[in-house]
Amino acid sequence: MRKKHVCVITFAICLGLSSGPALAQDDAEFDDDFGAAPEPVQSSNDETWDQPAPEQEQKATASEQVREDEDPLLVHNTIAGPTGGIHAVDAGSGKKGSFRLALAFEFFRKDGFLISNASNRHGGTALSMSLTPIDHLELSAQLSANGNENTGSRPTVIQVMGDARLFAKGFFSPLPGLTVGGDFELALLNAVGGLGYQTSAASVGLRGNVTLDMRKLQKPFPLIVRGSMRYFFDNSSKLIRNVERARYNSLSDPAGPDSEYRHLMSNVERFAYRINRTDSFSLGFGLEMPFAPKKEVLVSPLLEWNVAIPVNRQDYNCLVTNVRGDRDSCLAGEGFSSRPSVLSMGVRVQPKVPGLGVMFALDVATSGSSNYVRELAPTAPYQLYFAASYAYEPFAKREPVAPVITQVEVPVEKMRGHIVGQVIDKQGLVAIPHALVHFEGHTLSDIATDDTGRFVSYPFDPGPHTMQIAADGFEPSACSATLPDDASDVQVRCELLAMPSVGTLRGRVLDASGKAVNKAAVELTGPTTITLTSDESGTFNVNDLSTGEYEARVEAEGYLMQVVPLTVRARSESAPVFTLLPKPAKSLVALTTKKIAIKQQVQFVAGSAEIAPQSNALLSEVTDLLLRNRSIARVEVQGHTDNSGTEATNRELSERRAQAVREWLVKAGVEDERLSATGYGSTRPLAPNITQQNRARNRRVELVILETR
User: pTM for the complete prediction?
Assistant: First the structure.
């Protein structure tokens, strides 16, 4: 008998809450009018200092204490657990010693979702807790359960119980209102068809967070802006590895592993279990605008958008079946519509009950809810949320303390002046930024020059002063200046002599087995052009070589030529090692008038543009031919496919494969401007696509000569 209801675990929370502090006292009023301007106090050396009146100082102190201790907007948990909005995580947290509890429910229902002509219902609940034990640290955890019912799937009802997520968040505030930080997440998933967490499926998330609370700026505005970037190492697919293997073994007529799909998890199962076969890089953005419609009640509208970009760290090879009725496709054949992204809208209300928060929210999928791919769990077209939370903040109520007024005599300061200088290159007469200026006879920190080489000293007594100047790449030098008796500023120019900008190059040439290559020619092209020859140990060296970027052209008899970039830095030794590949006994590459003929096909990882390692030797020969034949001015790398799949997919795959070969050759030393890449898809077959052998011939890369010198 088919189940008609989704089974959802609910949590009961019993909280013994003592009466917390009120949000604001009835008779508390803020008075920011500090009265008329105070009378200035005249010092003995005719300098004017503004001193606040005692009454004004007392009033400002009381106002500041109320604002700090009675901020009515408490931080609450997100749906996942850490503090923030709906899903957007705050960079910061509550005060030291604060903690929060939240119970959240989710629900949606939609006919035709995942399976046509089938009804789908989903519900879930999550219990979360977060606490701030010390400054700059928040710890949080979530325990969740959910159920999904789809009338067109088998089984009809799928339940997930007791998935756990643990978080640790660190943060700091470099500026008023601005908080930056990051958090670590550990996701523990229950085994499919069993009990207990499956450790191999544990997933890890790393996230960077930034929050701008514009209420704390010099000109306050009731807006909180949240942003985050997150990388999630998703291992959830390991939950179903044994299940899919058992299903495959149970098939009576299984096809080969590269073409069989019936044993794979359906889109309903991936949605219910939240199974992803790839990692994800996520971007999140959120806004919150708190306001008080009535006394002791706060309302915070929330708006957020989150998008996840799949990253195939697992090298999952997606199966394209083109079987009627199979609603799953692959990421490579889909665009943004298959990537999960969600627009979230909601409101959080803090009623008069101290610490209580209630949130209503709605997720609307902006992609990922209709185009299903085998690599990802589908995204619900919408999701309704209700959450109730409690937050405790350790307010320390204090009565304003009357200030103690003390008469202070202002001492007469001695007249002092400044040295205003500029550090320049003695030869080029150009400014030297970031030079360090040390003042002899003073226990003061060094001063660094700005981008124009300028600096202003500390205030000094009249008389002579000596400075030691140091800068990277220059000889240290002393500079002096004399401040006049009237303590006026004095201008000075300090000159440094540049050190010789040369370095040492000491490299080696080896073969693939690590054996030294004797008499290899190493031609360096860059700030200086020079040709060196390796000795019996494969070593070559040159001293006092001009610094800068070089291109090393390395060749030896019986080996393929190699072009490698290197950098020579001032007053340091560069030690590159070049590994030459031997020329094959039977070449796989031949030069004709119209093309560079290759006697083997360039091999790629199935269904992708990743060049297989067994093709590296072939492409090394192509590189050698291009480097030795400078008369070949331009070559087009052409990608071709057979007629399997759609024309758009074939053209895109052939374009990416041609581009991959071009990038391989450029990285190996062939000039960028000599190569172009074009994908022709299946439009230029060598033979009719009627046999496997002909299709294999049509899947190829060709190197066509477009121009010669």
Answer: 0.50
